[in-house]
Write a structure and sequence with these properties.
elongated; 5 helices; 5-stranded antiparallel beta sheet; alpha+beta
């Protein structure tokens, strides 16, 4: 397995809003699972339409394990008082493929740089605390294609090594997909490839 695919923590579904108040200003925290910049932009656009009357919609996201894309946006707040503390909570929680947005309604009292940073941090922290965190496990899928006469040898190998079958079709043309650990994928791949008449492919993915 390549070094690109690693286990990581993310959230399984969107969470929020979580309300945080500071001197009459209201801060609404949202968290979203996003696996691409395009998905983040789409979610942000939806939220901004929903809160078109809000004073600010600030956000931060962390997308990808290798070549990680980090972005933060203050949306008109003083520099580094909104996006930075939001992103800081994502990285502190060791999460990837996550975007946190905080919607602010100004309450008429200025908070100052310190007050703003604290408010955005607390709003982000609060919504992440209620977000369902899950581990995405890196696996290797080995796909087999063969004729029925090879079935006994293939199934014998699968049974002997207690391999997990995710899908299978047993007809004249047989196909089986196996889910194996990354560490043992090369050995399994080479052994299965050595069976006469069996076509083998593998790919890396996440459970």
């Amino acid at each position: 397995m390549s070094d690109q695919l690693k286990d990581f923590k993310t959230i399984s579904r969107a969470a929020g809003p979580v309300l945080y108040r500071e001197k009459k200003s209201r801060f609404l925290g949202y968290a979203f699972p996003v696996s691409s910049v395009e998905a983040a932009d789409e979610q942000l656009g939806t939220l901004r339409k929903q809160y078109a009357d809000a004073t600010h919609v600030c956000y931060g996201y962390r997308i990808g394990i290798e070549n990680t894309r980090l972005r933060m946006n203050d949306d008109g707040e003083p520099a580094h008082t909104a996006g930075s503390p939001i992103l800081g909570q994502i990285t502190s929680a060791e999460l990837f493929d996550v975007m946190v947005c905080v919607v602010r309604y100004y309450g008429g009292v200025k908070l100052g740089a310190g007050g703003l940073s604290k408010a955005y941090k607390e709003a982000a922290k609060s919504v992440l605390e209620i977000s369902p965190v899950v581990w995405r496990k890196a696996v290797c899928v080995i796909s087999l294609q063969f004729q029925y006469p090879q079935l006994d040898e293939v199934m014998g190998f699968i049974s002997q090594n207690r391999l997990k079958v995710s899908t299978q079709k047993m007809k004249l043309d047989c196909t089986i997909d196996l889910i194996v650990s990354p560490e043992k994928s090369n050995a399994y791949f080479e052994r299965l490839k050595s069976i006469t008449g069996v076509q083998v492919r593998k790919k890396e993915t996440y459970t």
